[in-house]
Amino acid sequence: MTERVCLVHYHEIGLKGKNRATFENRLIANLTHALRGTSASRVCRISGHLLVESDDGFASQKMAHAISRVPGVARVSLAYRCALDEDEYCGAAVRALGEAPEPWQTFKVHARRSSTDYPLHTLELNRLVGGVLCGAFPQKRVLMHGPDMTVVVHVVQGSVYVYVDSGPGVGGLPVGSAGKVVSLFSSGFDSPVATWMVGRRGAVCVPIHFSGRPVTSDQSEWLCQDIINALAPSGIVGRLYVVPFGEHQRQISLDVPQGLRVLMYRRVMFSVAERIAKVEDAKALVTGESLGQVASQTLENISVVNECVSLPVLRPLIGSDKQEIMRRAEDLGTYEISSLDAPDCCTLFMPRRPETHARIEQILEAWELFDHDSMIEQLVDQIEYVDFEQCKPYKPPKCLRARHKELAPAEWQR
Ligand code: ATP
Ligand code: MG
Question: Which domain holds residue 357?
Answer without folding.
Answer: 180-413
